[in-house]
Specification:
Length: 160
């Protein structure tokens, strides 16, 4: 069994679209635009990845995520083969999301700096305030975990 976890941050490039399966299970999908860090003098070209959410997460994403927002998506990478109208098979990759977080405030600045290959240290706040955290964390069927400075998973979670 192949199991590939992925964590992506980017800008929501299309308004999330909610639909239902024949079994009345909600499924929401949207395109996430990602700009990789530049390599040398070559400009970085953004690309888009399809994000698919199921069940309760699909309902929440459809109600709260908007075009243009910066989000952090954690989920399972999967290959999808589609048949085009001319009969050829086209292979693409998408993420089946397990968690989607809207990124705001200083955390958004850190994510943008990391995407551009810059310093990822958060700027010092002008006045004392609570540490920047995602606006919301939406998990599949579990309540949103309390935000912390710890990563969502550790090296021990990597299966190889």
């Amino acid at each position: 069994m192949t199991f590939a976890r992925a964590t992506l941050s980017g800008t929501v490039a299309s308004q999330p679209e909610k639909r239902f399966t024949q079994n009345n299970t909600a499924v929401t999908s949207f395109m996430l635009e990602i700009t990789p860090p530049p390599r040398g003098n070559a400009p970085s070209n953004p690309y888009q990845v399809k994000i698919t959410c199921w069940a309760r997460l699909a309902e929440t994403v459809a109600e709260t995520v908007q075009h243009g927002q910066t989000v952090l998506v954690e989920g399972r990478l999967q290959a999808v083969t589609e048949t085009t109208p001319d009969g050829t098979n086209k292979k693409s990759f998408e993420i089946e999301a397990g968690q989607v977080s809207i990124v705001t405030g200083q955390l958004q600045d850190v994510v943008a700096a990391a995407a551009m290959g810059g310093n990822t240290a958060a700027p010092a706040p002008a006045q004392p305030q609570q540490a920047a955290q995602p606006q919301m964390a939406m998990a599949g069927n579990a309540p949103a975990p309390a935000a912390s400075a710890q990563p969502a998973f550790t090296e021990d979670d990597i299966p190889f």
